[in-house]
């Protein structure tokens, strides 16, 4: 079966609230931050907020389109869509749905959004009841994403011979990128290798700085037709391809009984996704100029590098340790705004925003003449999604 | 009998799909769901066989030994009851007598620096709240 992605849509607006550490934003609500981010995205695009007629988000979003429509006085809603669970795994898929809705002609201007104030609501890093799958985790003390990702990544390390020294390159590189990005929560806070190794373990092999930030904030972006984009303020980031997939038998993966196929266990469940994505884009990983990898936990980046074919099996650790993820000299500058580890944790939507900035030429760690920008979404749990942006 | 983790930690919440698995555990029998037509084992319990799609199921006893397939040592207490318990291990055990069935569990007598992938383990039933019995493991030769 051949797959294809419509070639007539683009991301044309980026908006975000300020980003703060969990619990630092107490004077305004998460919902207000979201409204601010959406208004900023429209402003950035050069659109009136009232032109928005579609709304896309992904699992764990708390704020329904109807309330946004009501609050921001938006006259028409023609499309509203939420991607199924595994939270961050649906992030790029929400952009995909926005593009498909625009392409199909059922709406013209879609906002893709995520709000997340872990200080005003629950923390992901604490026990939560899980009605599906929880029976096989909770009684055994398997409670958080750090822990279940640690299990898959430990197996990956065993199979591929990855070392903790190699893993350290991921958070250290992204923290260095964040030192150029004033919007990053870890801006002004460089991290040394000694500090990284001296930090406490959360769940072996993950130490404190292998785990993403807990953030208060919101971000949004605007998807519309390439034709309409020509009349707008920003250089459009074309959506060359976007895809959603899950390997056969993965199910809920590590957020259940851990019975993924043996050969898939130490992966990010992205091989089927990678195949679909690059087939639709008509390019290969070697054509990518800059990448944003979903880095809720550092180890996910090493596994995803392999799953998407940027390096051969077992190549993730050596590739990172050799400096290839670093801006500006690495062969694949990655998470150039600091990522979920050092910029902010907006469930991956801030990675899409940075992917767009690289196409616009406005990143604080801009890859010269970047033409092809890759973003993947999702860590341990269910399905995954990814997208490729181009000029 | 001492429990490896505090009994305040929420236990399993059986539903119509997996009640037999937990009932067998209460009887200290580890039985894995199997297809009554093609015989393929599957876990967690689910209504149909992914291999042949039959919805006729049975429950097959397994030896109760296995090897550690992966593990993590949890240092951060993500539930209030674990504050004085960390560090503890969570281990994924690949069960003997199956091609690929794993269960998430704990190796109750392995120190954090002892546990390793490939370690041989055997069932050590552990009674927790409300008479529920959990399949945990201890080191085996």
Describe the structure.
Chain B: This is Thiolase. Chain B: Residues 59-126 form the ChsH2 C-terminal OB-fold domain. The complex is a heterodimer of chains A (391) and B (141). By secondary structure, chain A is of the alpha+beta class. Helix content of chain A is 31%, strand content 18%. Chain A has one domain: 3-Layer(aba) Sandwich (Peroxisomal Thiolase, Chain A, domain 1). Chain A has 12 helices and 12 strands. In chain A, strands 1, 2, 3, 4, 5, 8, 9, 10, 11 and 12 form a 10-stranded mixed β-sheet that branches. A two-stranded antiparallel ribbon of chain A has the order 6-7. The longest helix of chain A has 16 residues, at 30-45. The two termini of chain A are 28 Å apart. Chain B is mainly β and 141 residues long. Chain B contains 1 helix and 8 strands. Chain B has one helix spanning 19-26; strands at 31-35, 41-42, 57-61, 65-74, 88-95, 102-105, 120-127, 133-139. In chain B, the strands form 2 sheets. In chain B, strands 6-5-4-7-8 form a 5-stranded antiparallel β-sheet. A 3-stranded antiparallel β-sheet of chain B has the order 2-1-3, with helices on one face. In chain B, strand 5 (88-95) and strand 6 (102-105) form a beta hairpin. The two termini of chain B are 22 Å apart.
Enumerate how many helices of chain A there are, as a single number. Answer: 12
**Spatial arrangement of strands, main beta sheet of chain B:** 6-5-4-7-8
Radius of gyration of chain B from CA coordinates: 16 Å
How big a fraction of the residues of chain A is strand? Answer: 15-25%
**CATH domain topology of chain A:** Peroxisomal Thiolase, Chain A, domain 1
Q: CATH H-level name of chain A... which superfamily?
A: Thiolase/Chalcone synthase
Residue share in β-strands of chain B: 25-35%
Instruction: Report the major sheet of chain A.
Output: 10 strands, mixed
**Helix share, percent of chain B:** under 10%
Structural class of chain B: mainly beta
Helix content of chain A: 25-40%
- Element order of chain A: H for helix, E for strand: EEHEHEHEHHHEEEHEHEHHHHEE
Mean pLDDT of chain B: 96
């Amino acid at each position: 079966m051949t797959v294809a992605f419509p070639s007539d849509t683009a991301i044309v607006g980026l908006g975000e609230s300020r980003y703060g550490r969990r619990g630092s934003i107490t004077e305004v609500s998460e919902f207000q931050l979201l409204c601010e981010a959406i208004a900023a995205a429209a402003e950035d695009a050069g659109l009136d907020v009232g032109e928005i007629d579609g709304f896309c988000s992904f699992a764990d979003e708390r704020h329904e389109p109807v309330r946004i429509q009501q609050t921001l006085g938006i006259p028409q809603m023609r499309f509203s869509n939420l991607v199924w669970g595994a939270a961050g795994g649906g992030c790029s898929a929400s952009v995909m749905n926005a593009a498909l809705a625009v392409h199909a002609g059922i709406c013209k201007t879609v906002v893709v959004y995520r709000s997340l104030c872990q200080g005003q609501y629950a923390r992901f890093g604490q026990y939560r009841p899980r009605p599906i799958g929880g029976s096989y985790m909770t009684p055994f003390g398997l409670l958080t994403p750090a822990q279940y990702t640690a299990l898959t990544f430990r197996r990956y390390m065993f199979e591929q011979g990855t070392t903790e020294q190699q893993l350290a390159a991921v958070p250290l590189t992204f923290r260095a990128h964040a030192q150029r990005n004033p919007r990053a929560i870890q801006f002004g806070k460089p991290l040394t290798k000694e500090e990284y190794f001296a930090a406490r373990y959360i769940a072996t092999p993950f130490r404190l700085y292998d785990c993403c930030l807990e953030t208060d904030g919101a971000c949004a972006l605007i998807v519309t037709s390439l034709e309409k984009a020509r009349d707008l303020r920003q250089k459009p980031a074309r959506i060359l391809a976007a895809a959603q997939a899950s390997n056969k038998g993965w199910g809920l993966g590590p957020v259940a009984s851990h019975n993924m196929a043996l050969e898939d266990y130490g992966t990010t469940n992205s091989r089927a996704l990678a195949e679909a994505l690059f087939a639709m884009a008509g390019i290969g990983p070697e054509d990518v100029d800059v990448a944003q990898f979903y880095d809720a936990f550092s180890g996910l980046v090493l596994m995803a590098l392999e799953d998407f074919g940027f390096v051969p099996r077992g190549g993730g650790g050596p590739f990172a340790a050799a400096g290839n993820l670093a801006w500006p000299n690495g062969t694949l500058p990655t998470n150039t705004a600091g990522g979920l580890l050092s910029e902010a944790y907006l469930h991956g939507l801030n990675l899409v925003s940075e992917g767009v900035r690289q196409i616009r030429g406005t990143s604080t760690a801009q890859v010269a003449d970047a033409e092809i920008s890759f973003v993947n979404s999702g860590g341990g749990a269910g399905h995954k999604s990814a997208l490729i942006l181009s000029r | 009998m001492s429990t490896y983790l505090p009994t305040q930690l929420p236990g399993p919440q059986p539903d119509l799909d997996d009640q037999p698995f937990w009932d067998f555990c209460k009887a200290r029998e580890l039985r894995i769901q199997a297809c009554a037509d093609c015989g393929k084992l599957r876990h967690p319990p689910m209504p149909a066989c992914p291999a042949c799609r039959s919805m006729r199921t049975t429950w097959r006893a397994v030896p109760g030994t296995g090897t550690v397939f992966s593990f993590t040592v949890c240092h951060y207490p993500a539930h209030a009851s674990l504050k004085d318990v960390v560090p503890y291990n969570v281990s994924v055990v690949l069960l003997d007598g199956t091609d690929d069935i794993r269960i998430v569990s704990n190796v109750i007598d392995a120190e954090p620096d002892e546990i390793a992938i490939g370690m041989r383990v055997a069932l050590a039933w552990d009674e927790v709240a409300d008479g529920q019995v959990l399949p945990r493991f201890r080191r085996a030769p």
